[in-house]
Design a protein that fits this description.
This protein is of the alpha/beta class and 381 residues long. It has helices at 2-55, 58-61, 77-93, 107-119, 132-144, 168-183, 198-213, 229-243, 258-270, 285-292, 306-322, 369-379, and strands at residues 67-72, 97-102, 124-128, 149-152, 162-166, 187-192, 217-223, 252-255, 277-281, 298-303, 329-332, 335-338. It contains twelve helices and twelve strands. Helix 3 (77-93) links the parallel strand 1 and strand 2 (97-102).
Length: 381
Amino acid sequence: MIRQRKWGVLFTLAMALVLVLSACGNKNNNNGSASESASPSASATSTESASPAASADPSVEALKGKKIALVMQFNTGTFSAQYIDGVKKQVEKYGGKVTVFASENDLSKMSSNLDAAINQKFDGILIDHGNAAALTAGVNRAKQAGIPVVAFDAALGIDGVTDLSQNDQKMAEQTLEQLAKDAGGKGNIVKVWVAGFAPMERRQESYAAFQAKYPDIKEITSFGDASNPQLDAQTKMEAILKQYPEKGSITAVWAAWDEFAKGAANAIKQAGRDEIKVYGIDMSDEDLTMIQDATSPWIASAAVDPTTIGTVHVRYLYQALHGDAVEPAVQIDSVYVSRDALPTDKKVTTADLSQYVPGWGESDQGNTDYLKALEAAVGAK
């Protein structure tokens, strides 16, 4: 009995050992299988994560981190401030940085600023206003250095350089036609305008056509100075109001720039001449505040969103940096903004003006698939 019991115990121990060894063997085999199945998965994951970088368009990647110079003839007023904001924000969306060269309405200084941007080896140059006489030599230097240039409201007419502009003739027509309608096709008007600027010259073309079309609308005087436009317009308008003190002697003021419109409107309001209406061109948040004010003589303006202008300006420069064929001339369409279209119970800004004026605000003009990809890639970081 003892021997049988002994053999039974030994048999049980032997079976337990076999089971333990078997379990260990299975464990090792399972580990091996897990390792083998993980390897391809890890490899696939690695390949997938590397895939976007491997398949990314190198020409898009090359557009990141660009240094952009913005060379401006002047940066007066809120319109310019909002335009600059549009430029800076769009360049930042592309992963670049903007340096502004302000020239204080001095074309010689603007030419020097353009030379400085070239010497400092900026990747691309944006030009705001100026003219061919002052800038052609510098732009040609930039081209020789391989630096693309896109100009706004400069009408340079240089091969390989896009001239971007607002539709100035249309803006003038929009405001002048409404002036004529409101005045019943007759009356005396004051023109605030200045020569020597491409957009002003284009607006003058529409004004000349307007004079021919409405011979019973007489221009009694014209003035304008770009050096200190708002203050100068106010001072000169005050003097004109004294020359024509009778109500009804002046029907309206047509101002070819919002800075002129602000100055003229201030003078008219202070003089209590509420029968005189002001029609302007261009738009900013400050302008909208005045137009919405029921006591202001400034009742309407034709304009393009200044922030949008900055955005579109940058897009065409980046097209040139990408090596695309350069469009010689590009126009941005305008809209007509009148007090009648705006709410009376709240203040409107250019950011929400599109709710009341169709066509205002966001524009896809100048955008491309690769620029959208660039913006997405920079924004994903």
